[in-house]
C-alpha cells in the first residue's frame, strides 16, 4: 500500500469527506502506518484506528447525515482508537457551541467553534506539553477552543489555560494541526494508543516509535 | 504602503525556505483545510445559508456572479463591505471575497473586514494591466487564477497560497477548465524529467522564478493546493475536474442562476413583505418560490456530493439525478476573444 507499510503496520483510516486528509496520510505514512481514505461506511471495516481531520465540520456532518454514516461512525469511535484534529475534535465532542451542532459525543468535552477568530487570527505557538521531549509546535487554523473537559479527560497541552490536546481512553483530540508540523510526537502518541488497543494476535513484533 | 494596513512582509521573495515561514504556513494551512470540497459564489445572505446547509466548505461573497457580469457588462468591482459583513455574519464556514487584479486597496479593505481568503480575480475588471498585488504584504491568504504553469508560479512568487485553474467563468462550459488543468499537469510532468542544467532554461520558458520551477521539478506538484474554477456547472463536471487533478472545486454561476442574467429566486418571505401585503404572516420564513429554491438547493447538494465521491460513478449519477433544472450555458467557443475573462492576468 505504501513504501513504509508492512503486513504488521497498523491500518489507519483517514476520514476523507473533505479537509486535511492528505496531510494526515503523509504523516502516517512517514511513521510506518498504512493509511486508508474513508469516504463511505464500509471503508471502516478492518481498521486499527481512525483519524478525523481538520476541515469544515458542517460539511462533514452533511455527509454523515447520509447512508446512516453518522450512526455507523458513532458506534465505531466508541470502540476503536480515534484521533480528531480541529473539525475532527468538534465531531468527537459531547457538546458543541457557537453554534450548537450535532456531534458523535464520544469525548466528554465542550468545544466552541472558531473561538479564536477568523483566519487572520490563526497562529503558530510553541509551548511545553505533557509529551516527552522539547516544547511542541502547535498550528492553529480558525481553531476551536475546548472550554470544558469531563473528569475522565486528561489534558496534555494547553493554550492560555484552555486544553488543546486531550486524551480519554482510546480517544485523542487536538484543536491544533500536528499534521501541519514536522514534529511527529502527537501522531506517535496516537499510534501507541492504536497498538495498545490491538488484539495481541494482530500485533506481531511492531516496533515502538 | 503602510505596514499596519497589510501586516505582512511586502516584497517577500520565495524559495523552498519560504514554505517553512509561519506566515505562509498559516495561509497554506487554511488552503489544506479546504481540500476536497466546493467553494460557492453567493450574492446574498440567503444564498450563503443555502450553500453552507448544502455542505459548501466556503462561500465567495460577490455582488454579481460571472454570468451576470458577462451578460450585463460594466465595471465589476469588489463587493460592498456591507454585503461581505452580512455574509460573514450569516455562516460559520470561511468566507472569501474577490479583489480586482492589482487593486491592493480593495484587498486591504477585505483584509480589514476579516475575510478568510482573498481571490485576486480575473472575473472582476482588472485595476492594473501590468502588476498583480504583492500578496506577501498581507496576512490574509490569497487565491489566484492560472491558465498554465508559468502563470501559476508567478502568482505563487507574488505570495498566492492557492491556485485555481481559470477556465472561462460564467459560461457553464467546462472546456477551458479542462484545458487549463490538463496544461498545468502536463507542464509539471514535463519538468520532472529535466536535468538541473535544463531547469534554468525551463524557468525562462515559463517566465517563472527558477527556485519555484526547481521545487515543482523535484516534487512533481505545485507547492500550493491547486483547485479548479470557471465553467463547472454540473456534478459530473466537478467529478471530471477532480479526476483530472483538482483538489477542490469553485462553482460560480452554476448553482444560483436561472437564465444568464437572472438568478433563481431563493428568498424567504420576510415580515416586511407581510407588512405591505405581499404575503400573509403565516408565510413568513417560507420560500417565495419553492420550486426555484428547491432547484438551487438540489444543485448545491449534488455538486458537493460529486466532489467528494468523484471517483464513484454510481454516487455521481445518483447526485446528478436528484438535480432539478440546470444553468443555461453559454458555449465558450462562441465568446469573442476580447470578451474572455481568462486572458486577464499577466
Describe this structure in words.
Chain A is built from five helices and twelve strands. With 209 residues, chain A is α/β, with parallel strands linked by helices. Chain A has one domain: 3-Layer(aba) Sandwich (Rossmann fold). Chain A has a seven-stranded mixed sheet. Chain A has a three-stranded mixed sheet with strand order 5-6-9. Chain A is globular, with a radius of gyration of 16 Å. Chain B is built from 14 helices and ten strands. The longest helix of chain B is centred in the C-terminal third of the chain and has 19 residues. The chains are: A alpha/beta (209), B alpha/beta (346). Chains A and B meet through α1 and α2 of A and α2, α3 and α13 of B.
Q: Mind describing the biggest β-sheet of chain B?
A: 8 strands, parallel
Helix content of chain B: 40-55%
Average pLDDT metric of chain B: 93
Give a count of the beta strands of chain B, DSSP E runs of length 2 or more. 10
Number of domains of chain B: 1
CATH class of chain A: Alpha Beta
Rg of chain A, please? 16 Å
Biggest beta sheet attributes of chain A: 7 strands, mixed
CATH superfamily of chain A: Class I glutamine amidotransferase (GATase) domain
In N-to-C order, the SSE pattern of chain B is HHEHEHHEHEEHEHHHEHEEEHHH
Low-pLDDT segments of chain A? 203-209
Q: Quick gist of this model?
A:
The complex is a heterodimer of chains A (209) and B (346). By secondary structure, chain A is an alpha/beta fold.
Amino acid at each position: 500500500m505504501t513504501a513504509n507499510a508492512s503486513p504488521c503496520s497498523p491500518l489507519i483510516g483517514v476520514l476523507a469527506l473533505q479537509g486535511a486528509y492528505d496531510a494526515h496520510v503523509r504523516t502516517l505514512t512517514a511513521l510506518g502506518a498504512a493509511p486508508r481514505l474513508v469516504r463511505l461506511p464500509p471503508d471502516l471495516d478492518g481498521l486499527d484506528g481512525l483519524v478525523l481531520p481538520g476541515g469544515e465540520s458542517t460539511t462533514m456532518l452533511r455527509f454523515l447525515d447520509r447512508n446512516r454514516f453518522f450512526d455507523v461512525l458513532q458506534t465505531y469511535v466508541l470502540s476503536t482508537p480515534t484521533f480528531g484534529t480541529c473539525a475532527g475534535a468538534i465531531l468527537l465532542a459531547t457538546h458543541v457551541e457557537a453554534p450548537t451542532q450535532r456531534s458523535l459525543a464520544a469525548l466528554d468535552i465542550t468545544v466552541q467553534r472558531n473561538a479564536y477568530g477568523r483566519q487572520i487570527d490563526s497562529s503558530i505557538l510553541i509551548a511545553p506539553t505533557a509529551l516527552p521531549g522539547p516544547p511542541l509546535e502547535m498550528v492553529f487554523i480558525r481553531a476551536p477552543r475546548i472550554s470544558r473537559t469531563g473528569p475522565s479527560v486528561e489534558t496534555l497541552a494547553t493554550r492560555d489555560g484552555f486544553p488543546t490536546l486531550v486524551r480519554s481512553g482510546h480517544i485523542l483530540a487536538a484543536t491544533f494541526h500536528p499534521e501541519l508540523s514536522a514534529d511527529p510526537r502527537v501522531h506517535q502518541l496516537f499510534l501507541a494508543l492504536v497498538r495498545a488497543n490491538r488484539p495481541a494476535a494482530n500485533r506481531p513484533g511492531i516496533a515502538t516509535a | 504602503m503602510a505596514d499596519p494596513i497589510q501586516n505582512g512582509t511586502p516584497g517577500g521573495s520565495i524559495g523552498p525556505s519560504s514554505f517553512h515561514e509561519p506566515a505562509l504556513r498559516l495561509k497554506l494551512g487554511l488552503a489544506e483545510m479546504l481540500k476536497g470540497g466546493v467553494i460557492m459564489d453567493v450574492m446574498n445572505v440567503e444564498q450563503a445559508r443555502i450553500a453552507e446547509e448544502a455542505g459548501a466548505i466556503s462561500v465567495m461573497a460577490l455582488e454579481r456572479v460571472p454570468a451576470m457580469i458577462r451578460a450585463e457588462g460594466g465595471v465589476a468591482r469588489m463587493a460592498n463591505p456591507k454585503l461581505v459583513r452580512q455574509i460573514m455574519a450569516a455562516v460559520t464556514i470561511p468566507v472569501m471575497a474577490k479583489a480586482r487584479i492589482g487593486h491592493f486597496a480593495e484587498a486591504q479593505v477585505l483584509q480589514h473586514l476579516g475575510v478568510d481568503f482573498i481571490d485576486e480575480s480575473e472575473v472582476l475588471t482588472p485595476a492594473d494591466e501590468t502588476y498583480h498585488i504583492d500578496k506577501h504584504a498581507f496576512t490574509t491568504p490569497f487565491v489566484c487564477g492560472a491558465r498554465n504553469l508559468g502563470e501559476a508560479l508567478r502568482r505563487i512568487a507574488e505570495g498566492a497560497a492557492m491556485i485555481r485553474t481559470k477556465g472561462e467563468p460564467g459560461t457553464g462550459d467546462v472546456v477551458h477548465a479542462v484545458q487549463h488543468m490538463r496544461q498545468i499537469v502536463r507542464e509539471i510532468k514535463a519538468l520532472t524529467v529535466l536535468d538541473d542544467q535544463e531547469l534554468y532554461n525551463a524557468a525562462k520558458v515559463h517566465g517563472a522564478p527558477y527556485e519555484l520551477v526547481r521545487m515543482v521539478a523535484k516534487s512533481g506538484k505545485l507547492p500550493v493546493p491547486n483547485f479548479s474554477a470557471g465553467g463547472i456547472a454540473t456534478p459530473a463536471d466537478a467529478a471530471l475536474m477532480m479526476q483530472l487533478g483538482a483538489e477542490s472545486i469553485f462553482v460560480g454561476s452554476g448553482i444560483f442562476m436561472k437564465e444568464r442574467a437572472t438568478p433563481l429566486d431563493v428568498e424567504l418571505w420576510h415580515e416586511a413583505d407581510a407588512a405591505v401585503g405581499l404575503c400573509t404572516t403565516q408565510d413568513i420564513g417560507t420560500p417565495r418560490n419553492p420550486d426555484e429554491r428547491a432547484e438551487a438547493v438540489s444543485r448545491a447538494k449534488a455538486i458537493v456530493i460529486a466532489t467528494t465521491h468523484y471517483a464513484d460513478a454510481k454516487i455521481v449519477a445518483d447526485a446528478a439525478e436528484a438535480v432539478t433544472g440546470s444553468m443555461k450555458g453559454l458555449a465558450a467557443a462562441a465568446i469573442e476573444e476580447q470578451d474572455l475573462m481568462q486572458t486577464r492576468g499577466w
